[in-house]
Amino acid sequence: MKKIVHVFTVSMSVIFLEGLYEKLKSKGYELIVICSDGEEVRHQERLGNVKYYPVNMSRGINPIKDLSALIKIISILKKEKPLIVHGHTPKGGILAMMAAKLLKIKHRPYHLHGLKYPSEVGAKRLIIKWMEKMTISLSTKVFAVSNSLKEFAIASGLGSNLKIMVLLNGSVKGIDIKDSEEIRKNKEQTAIRLGIKKNEVTIGFVGRITEEKGIFELLKAYKRLIGSKQNIGLILCGPTEIKNSQNSVVFDEIRELPNVQYFGQVHNPLEYMVCCDIFVLPSWREGFGLVNIEANSVGLPVITTDIVGCKDSIEDQKTGILIESNNVCDLIDALELLIEDPALRKEMGQNGIQRVRDLYDRNKIWNTLLEEYERMIKAVKA
């Protein structure tokens, strides 16, 4: 059996592989996952989708823990002898590429999900950028999740056009088209089952509740809008990772505002999205913005920022509206336009459904990845 190892920093990142398990099995691959322990990867192990090795990896810079993790990964790779080692996320990526290079494993793809260093300052920024450059140099192929991310990485001197590619039209895993269709059909029943209150217009957000996702720009915009528009609501989904204690107080206050519903981290975000009328991702930094095409897939217009990644995920003025990042006034203008124009919301939502079908079908994205794997396997045999 052909063995492929995927290395992630944390367990929850195995969601990046949704829909790939069955395709790999059908082509005679054994999928091995290395990451920090967690229920997400254990669940896939119980289902028989992966063979799993727990290796504790620190998301931050920690030389002692990093060396320990590297030694463990080398030991696992020696035992399993995979044909391909596929790295993901900054820490999992660099450790995977280092271990595979040391063992002379010929094919070492790295999935570039985004770049963290532009939002850092000082020495930390330099170290993280060096780590990304090192990871890409040790890899044999880089899969960027968007064209604008690829262009930014090349312009920043991280890699070449020959090494960095985008699978199909981008995104990490695309959209399960049939699943989105079923969710759209069952919108009313889903809202009742989840206990979602109905408003004339509901704004949705899915993502980590943290500053860099632009959540506080959204909360400020909502607070201003409810002064003149009593008919709107706000649905928030995602784990809280607020770094500033003052912002924690603000978030708690916003949750008490009229028609705000916070559900925390949810299993199936599309079920919450379909109960909204407008989706907003005012992020400062993204590799692609998967939630934007998820929202489009269930018929929502999307307001998102004109930054690397996000600007690829929608078509401005057709499936949504691009705004300047960290600009509350821009966000309010876009929200007011869509709140006041239900016909425009419907048109953009329908355009979004079609664009997702055309560009981001999950089956097609995974087929493209499998073609890349097959080329690698043939090269190994040759």
UniProtKB/TrEMBL annotation:
Listed A to Z, the keywords are: Transferase
- UniProt keyword annotation of Transferase present: yes
The record, for InterPro entries, names: Glyco_trans_1, Glyco_trans_4-like_N, Glycosyltransferase_grp1
Where does the source fall among the domains of life?
Bacteria
| Stretches assigned to the Glycosyl transferase family domain | 189-354
Gene3D superfamilies assigned to the protein according to its UniProt record, in alphabetical order: Glycogen Phosphorylase B
Q: Which GO terms describe its molecular function?
A: glycosyltransferase activity
Query: Which segments constitute the Glycosyltransferase subfamily 4-like N-terminal domain?
Result: 15-141
Which Pfam families does the UniProt entry name for this protein?
Answer: Glyco_trans_4_2 (PF13477), Glycos_transf_1 (PF00534)
Q: Which PANTHER family match?
A: SULFOQUINOVOSYL TRANSFERASE SQD2
Q: What is this protein called?
A: Glycosyltransferase involved in cell wall bisynthesis
